[in-house]
Amino acid sequence: MTIKACLFDLDGVLVDTARYHYLAWRNLADSLGFSFTESDNERLKGVSRMASLEILLEIGKMNPSENEKITFAAQKNALYLEYIEKMNPDDILPGVREFLTELKKAGILIGLGSVSKNAQSILSKTDITGFFDAIVDGNIISQAKPDPEVFLTGAKMLNTNPEQCVVFEDALAGVEAAHRAGMKCVGIGSPDILSEADMVIPGFENFKVKDIVL
Length: 214
Ligand code: BG6
Ligand code: MG
Description:
Elements: E1 5-8, H1 17-32, H2 38-41, H3 49-59, H4 66-85, H5 96-106, E2 109-113, H6 119-125, E3 134-136, H7 149-157, E4 165-169, H8 172-180, E5 184-188, E6 199-201
Parallel strand pairs: 1-2, 1-4, 2-3, 4-5, 5-6
Helix pairs in contact: 1-4
The structure holds 6-O-phosphono-beta-D-glucopyranose and magnesium ion.
């Protein structure tokens, strides 16, 4: 395929914030009196804040009021913001900056496709905003992954057809969203978890455009 654009998920792909999301949700679960494991957390990756809370509450078998849910989500986000507050350019995952630089030189467009409402702040703290030709985040979309909206919006903003876009994702919901958008998907992480992806790599260290084999 001819690649015209690469669309990147943020959390767990460009930066290690997937870990912070997990720790913040686990802290909320602890405070509500139930445990929340890393394997439970796979279900939350790529899922919006409120939908993540619903899954967490289902795991804890809790049924709070709508107002309590808003309080719980705010509590989780406050702790998450504490974790990301000190992020800086060193927090970019290994090889990411080099790969983005290679894409730029090759004239391949770069888009962000994240459902996080905190995405812009993380891009700015880590100083990579300037790489992006389009930024789609949780503030401009209405449907979280696995809905394809986030990636279809990115393709539209970049003026490219879905079949010319490659998505980079660490979440099962994100791989499904990419495929539903008609795009190929490179999984970032373990092939056991991301078996649906078109290829899986552990991360971007030493990864080059020529290594994308789809
Ligand atoms: C996704 C994460 O990128 O963003 C999810 O994978 C997270 O874990 C979602 O829930 C929403 O993030 P935020 O920052 O808006 O709470
Ligand atoms: Mg992710």
